[in-house]
Amino acid sequence: MKIKLDENLSKEALEIFRQAEYDTESVFSQGMAGSPDRKIISVCQFEKRCLVTLDLDFANPFLFPPDQYSGIAVFRLPPRPSYSDLLVLCRTLLVALGEKDINGKLWIIQKSESENINLKTISRLCKKKMKVAMKDLNYPIRL
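^ thats the sequence. predicted structure below, dont judge the formating
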């Protein structure tokens, strides 16, 4: 699977995906920082890459119909996010990609204290227990 990280994700996030042996590029490293959303998603479509972003505009299926792309993953951070929150969402996505196909889908990935989904794999990866919600507009993901 090929992945493109939007400009709002860090170099460390890029390394997490590369260490997991995903063919990963970033908007920033390809000189596309500041480009309009339409251009970014068009390049992802051409390259057959799943877009990973914090940009909520990509969560609108009317603007960006998921079935036209190789997948869109939108991270939702808590109101007062820490840097580790972002890294947890990256690892959560990696686990989900190992179990489900994102091609043609929109996934919203968020850490949530109110959800009752216990991801044991994430607990092992992060060395602590946490609750994570993963939502897919096409069907709910249960890991």
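The chain has a mean pLDDT of 81.
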